[in-house]
Write a structure and sequence with these properties.
The two termini are about 30 Å apart. The protein has about 1000 residues and is mainly α. It contains 44 helices and 14 strands. Among the domains are: about 20-130, Winged helix-like DNA-binding domain superfamily/Winged helix DNA-binding domain (Arc Repressor Mutant, subunit A), CATH 1.10.10; about 205-295, Serine Threonine Protein Phosphatase 5, Tetratricopeptide repeat, CATH 1.25.40.10; about 330-480, 3-Layer(aba) Sandwich (Rossmann fold), CATH 3.40.50.300; about 490-550, no CATH class; about 580-655, Arc Repressor Mutant, subunit A (Orthogonal Bundle). It is globular, with a radius of gyration of 33 Å.
């Protein structure tokens, strides 16, 4: 690419085409001079996405690490950042001069610039599609406000045309995930806004199809449903419009356990009354409502700002709890709601900010709310109102909204005789009193959204803090900002203990403090109770207190206080006692689960419930904050809640019922793992399974996306499977134990988790021994041989594989004999004993051909080809490997395809056909990357670097080796010596070239 003097990479060319554009509204993509170019692997794309989103600003390396890797970066993250930035520079600046061979002088980038410990990506206006999208939405709002809905529709169409699929598609990391969700919400809102604008222009029939599709995709979006109801009504389809509302009511009740919101209900009432207001498509220019779902309600006319309250400013906030620590993230999220309030009346938001602070019992929701309220008290000079709504009180009923309003009116100096009788009128009076005021309302311990809504002000200068164990999804739908509160991390929890007990005492028994933190599960209430016991007994050693808490069954006894408000059993029971029977059953049974989290299908099997019933119960438990749900849709709880659930299970269920529930759970994981393994590894011999217990809902993997679903299942259940194997061993469910370890083994190999694999097989071999099952013993010895070889213990590997071969031969299991022969061949190739390896590989191929299993034959064909290539017979190797590739593709074995592509590339390299070798290595690398097989990807990159070097491209060789090293650094226990030796040799070679050029 030629660069004119003074013309930046982001500038437009002669034809007006931006020379560099970055797109994230779909797969992350780069266009250079109007042409799309490949921008690299997923994490490199993640780095690009962060830099583009903050274009023309310096992004520190620390910010990049947090955005791309989150809380668990690899040890070599710094070298990874350098590698990805270097890769991006090759994409973004292909004509950038290369550095001198001696690497002593770097050529600075012009597009991707190093600056102040970070990087800056230069993009011209219009060079980033996400920014253009949001600019269009801003322009559309301006056009609408100026009375030009037609122009606003054109600009929204321009914004939506920028989308090419899911934002940041396939890009990993917390930043990409957050942006994916944020941009998806903006896009959906833009579609709703377009429909609203078209309704303003009287185009009702035109928006019905797209609104129908939008409601089908997002059935819980009430604004879309309201717009569709209005559009259908204007088309003369009142019955259909009412049907949309009925469906909304059923969906919201079933999925979330809530009723439709105020706005949607108001449209419903207007439809029933055939309100003439619904027939008016266009308000006066410049005075359109923000949405057609918000017609004004009675008694909501604003008063003149600044009218005085009839009494001194109330200051009702409770005192702060001693020992507040941490919560910086949560305080930051709350503070982010304040810019409009801080700026004053002119720039205040259109509606008062509402923060919904949610979390489980004892997690510190009220403490956080009071801390924030007291920190920001000066921003609300008209006072603070507080009410404990007692939504989960063990002895009292929840406070009725009318009662809470009466207390507020007392605080505001309103005579009782002036308070209207109807709740709606009382709520309107509160809005009237607070209009134009700057007040903070803390609504503590709310039970549901219906208890909160009548207490909300309308003044934009006010702010509302709501705390609840329930998620109050209805309020979130209506605009409240959720602020979930989790348990304290270890550092924060230790801080709390030190503040309550004194730094000296905590430092003197630091190990005991660590144990107290662990046994209290980071729960602030549990830590406070523990510290209170230590304070009242100053002579007691903290180590003795920690020992009391060490036994999980006795932790709740050790944390008893005698007071209902601080006794953990009592606190938990306030939530548990209000559960429906199915939700209560699920909660008890989760106490039997090995943890740390669980998916809905596993819950269905555990409780013998239909999947919809399990999801309904989980939703109820989540709303009650007895469980938490993560972004992946998995459910969990802290250890003390799990201990409480286990106590309930012991009290309410018989031994037989508990044993049957555990059997269903293990059946679920075993049968699902068996199905996933069969889908991922079609050549793998399947062990037979007994029929599952009644009520087990094992997951299936069939149809489009089944391969990805199977991989995702193993990834999501990783920690659960490890615990399930231990649970099976502890309960002497030995068949479940060894077969579950067997199903899981190949996934662990591909993920480079050899230590976990061998630990699982060692547990499995004990289970097989207790069974006295020779087939089980043979299978486990075979897997122990495979994993021992991968760990470099060749003697142990040989012993286990030969035991397996002997047992399978005696049992007459020829398919297993072929599999073990293949394993022996792999072991021998790891030791460069290729002549011996060929004997086993050829015998294994002969056995497998006699069984006519194409998927298994393909693995042996490739094994023979790989060995022949190393014995100096690359032409013969290609014959075998090409046959294997076809069979693997026909069988749908992606791992087999990737392995065989690598073998073919190696054989072409031996023939010095470098273009073919490079092409096949690159294809293998791409396939391994999709599979998440870091170790094999690194191996292909190492060999690709060798071929690049042989073809004379030293820079490309070094790049491949650097990528391989970065991958191996992420694999526990991986041998990085070969990659480091290549890079060291490359540096020496570069120096020699530099010296030679200097002499010339």
């Amino acid at each position: 690419m030629r660069q004119d003097a003074g013309d930046g990479y982001g500038a437009k060319g002669a034809a007006g085409v931006l020379r560099l554009r970055v797109g994230v509204l779909g797969p992350v993509t780069v266009w250079r001079d109007g042409r799309e170019v490949t921008a690299g692997q997923p994490r490199q794309l993640a780095v690009l996405g962060v830099l583009a989103s903050r274009a023309n600003r310096v992004v520190s390396r620390g910010e990049l690490v947090d955005a791309v890797w989150g809380d668990q970066p690899p040890a070599t993250v710094e070298s990874g950042i350098y590698t990805y930035v270097a890769g991006l520079r090759r994409v973004l600046e292909p004509d950038r001069p290369r550095p001198n061979p001696d690497r002593t002088r770097r050529v600075p980038g012009r597009v991707l610039v190093s600056s102040g410990g970070g990087y800056l990506l230069r993009l011209d206006p219009g060079g980033f599609d996400s920014e253009r999208f949001e600019d269009c939405l801003t322009r559309a709002r301006g056009l609408r406000a100026s009375g030009d809905p037609c122009g606003a529709v054109r600009v929204v169409d321009e914004a939506l045309a920028l989308w090419r699929g899911q934002a940041f598609a396939g890009v990993p990391g917390p930043f990409a995930e957050a942006e994916r969700q944020r941009l998806a919400e903006l896009r959906t809102s833009a579609v709703e806004e377009r429909a609203d604008l078209m309704l303003l222009q009287g185009q009702s029939a035109a928006v019905v199809p797209e609104l129908t599709a939008l409601v089908a995709e997002y059935p819980l979006r009430e604004r879309a449903r309201g717009l569709l109801m209005i559009a259908l009504y204007r088309c003369g389809r009142q019955a259909d419009a009412l049907g949309v509302f009925r469906d909304a009511r059923e969906r919201l009740a079933e999925d979330l356990g809530i009723d439709p919101g105020v706005e949607l209900s108001r449209v419903h009432q207007q439809l029933l009354a055939m309100d003439p207001a619904l027939d008016r498509p266009r308000p006066a220019p410049g005075r359109e409502p923000a949405t057609l779902l918000l017609p004004p309600g009675p008694g909501e006319q604003p008063r003149e700002q600044g009218s005085p309250l009839s009494s001194p400013s109330p200051a009702q906030l409770p005192p702060e709890t001693a020992g507040f620590v941490g919560r910086m993230s949560e305080l930051g999220r709350l503070d982010a709601l304040l810019p409009g309030v801080r700026a004053g009346w002119n720039d205040a938001p259109a509606v008062p900010p509402i923060a919904l602070i949610t979390g489980t019992a004892g997690v510190g929701k009220t403490t956080l709310a009071i801390r924030f309220a007291r920190q920001t008290g000066s921003l609300f000079p008209d006072g603070q109102l507080y009410v404990n709504l007692r939504g989960f009180d063990p002895v009292s009923e929840p406070v009725a909204p009318g009662t809470a309003l009466e207390w507020f009116f007392d605080a505001l100096g309103v005579p009782a005789c002036e308070v209207p009788a109807a709740l709606e009128a009382q709520s309107a009076l509160l809005r009237t009193l607070l209009d134009g005021k700057r007040m903070l309302l803390l609504l503590d311990n709310a039970r549901d959204a219906g208890q909160v809504r009548p207490l909300l002000p309308g003044s934009p200068g006010c702010m509302v803090l709501v705390t609840s164990r329930s998620q109050l999804t209805g309020l979130v739908v209506e605009g409240a900002t959720p602020v979930p509160v989790d348990v304290l991390d270890r550092r924060e929890a230790a801080d709390l203990v030190a503040r309550r007990l004194g730094a000296e005492r905590a430092a003197a028994e630091s190990a005991a403090v660590d144990a107290l933190v662990e046994h209290s599960a980071g729960l602030p209430l549990a830590l406070s109770v523990t510290c209170a016991r230590a304070v009242t007994r100053p002579a007691m050693r903290l180590a003795d207190l920690a020992a009391e808490l060490a036994d999980a069954r006795g932790r709740l006894d050790a944390l008893q206080t005698g007071e209902a408000s601080t006794d953990l059993r009592a606190v938990f029971s306030w939530s548990a006692d209000k559960l429906s029977e199915p939700a209560a059953l699920v909660f008890r049974l989760i106490g039997l689960h090995a943890g740390p989290d669980i998916a809905a299908p596993a819950v269905a099997s555990l409780a013998a419930l239909p999947l919809p019933g399990a999801r309904t119960a989980l939703a109820e438990l989540t709303r009650a904050s007895l469980l938490t749900q993560d972004a992946a849709g998995r459910f969990g709880c802290h250890d003390l809640l799990r201990a409480y659930a286990a106590e309930l299970a012991m009290a309410a269920l018989s031994d037989a019922e508990r044993d049957l529930a555990r059997r269903r759970l293990l059946d679920h994981y075993l049968h699902t793992a068996h199905a996933a393994t069969a889908r991922l590894y079609p050549a793998r011999r399947l062990v037979p399974l007994s029929a599952p217990a009644a009520g087990v809902l094992a997951e299936e993997f069939a149809g489009p996306g089944a391969y990805e679903a199977a991989l995702s299942w193993f990834a999501a259940e990783h920690r659960v499977l490890r615990n399930a194997i231990e649970l099976a061993a502890d309960r002497h469910c030995d068949e479940h134990c060894w077969k579950l370890a067997w199903c899981w083994a190949p996934v662990l190999y591909r993920r480079g988790r050899m230590l976990e694999a061998i630990a699982g097989q060692r547990t499995a071999v004990l289970a097989a021994g207790r069974l006295g099952d020779r087939d089980a013993l043979a299978s486990v010895h075979s897997e122990l041989g495979n994993v021992s070889g991968r760990l470099g213990d060749f003697q142990a590997s040989d012993e286990h594989l030969r035991q397996a071969l002997e047992l399978f031969t005696e049992l007459g299991d020829r398919a297993a004999v072929g599999e073990v022969r293949n394993g022996l061949a792999v072991l021998l190739t790891q030791q460069d004993r290729y002549d011996e390896a060929l004997e086993h590989a050829a015998e294994g191929l002969r056995v497998r051909r006699s069984l006519a299993d194409p998927a298994a034959i393909a693995y042996s064909e490739n094994g023979v080809g790989w060995i022949l290539a190393h014995l100096g017979q690359p032409d013969a190797a290609l014959w075998y490997c090409h046959r294997a590739l076809g069979m693997h593709r026909e069988a749908g074995s992606r791992t087999g395809v990737a392995d065989t592509l690598d073998s073919i590339a190696y054989a072409y390299g031996e023939l010095e056909d470098y273009p073919q070798a490079i092409a096949h290595y690159e294809e293998a690398v791409a396939m391994y990357r999709i599979l998440g097989d870091l170790h094999s990807e690194a191996g292909s990159l190492l060999r690709l670097g060798d071929i690049r070097l042989a073809s004379g491209d030293l820079a490309a060789a070094r790049s491949a080796w650097e990528q391989a090293l970065a991958l191996l650094d992420q694999v526990p226990g991986a041998d990085t010596s070969e990659a480091r030796q290549r890079l060291t040799a490359d540096a020496r070679l570069a120096n020699e070239i530099s010296r030679s050029e200097a002499v010339l």
